[in-house]
Amino acid sequence: MGVRVPLRALCLHERITDMPPRWYAANLQSNREHQAQQYMQGNNVVHFLPTYLCASCRKDREKTLVKPLFPGYIFVRIEIPGEQKTTVLKSPGVCGIVSFSGTAAPVDDEVIESLQILTGAASGDVRPHPLVRAGTRVRVIDGPFKNAVGVLCDSENHKKQLLVEVTFLGRAVAVPIDPKQVEPVIG
Length: 187
Description:
Number of strands: 14
Order of helices and strands: HEHEEEEHEEEEHEEEEE
CATH class of the largest domain: Alpha Beta
Number of helices: 4
CATH superfamily of the largest domain: NusG, N-terminal domain
Strand content: 35-45%
Distance between the termini: 70 Å
Helix content: 10-25%
Number of domains: 2
Structural class: alpha+beta
């Protein structure tokens, strides 16, 4: 007589193995993005390493470098659990899959598709940029207000403004600002 497996257990098993592959971010050691990419390519793991071009001035020449848009990360499309997860974890420089509370955190397909569109465009205008939101303390890095420090805020007409407070007078000054002209103040 064979072993009886409850119907509920069969359904759960089918759900796990029939899950389609999803995108995940693999965390890497510093400057190991291209090695991990080559290993995954050789082992048929669907992956995506978004990059951008960066000019680098050397002593005797100017050189264009290909740099990762998200240093220390590569995106992989795998099934968890699955054999490909093991292959990813064996890749040179891979420290693990980005997880929260012990569960691998999938990246939305829409995010990956958008990154592929942006990095695939021939314009070369894609650059990493720090995430700045309303309420963030920022420093202006470009334009007529360069080096001014203040708080980024939204105005009624949905444009960003730099708010500089003069606390001892109980006043503030606000000027329109392009979020590309600011960087977060750390510390």
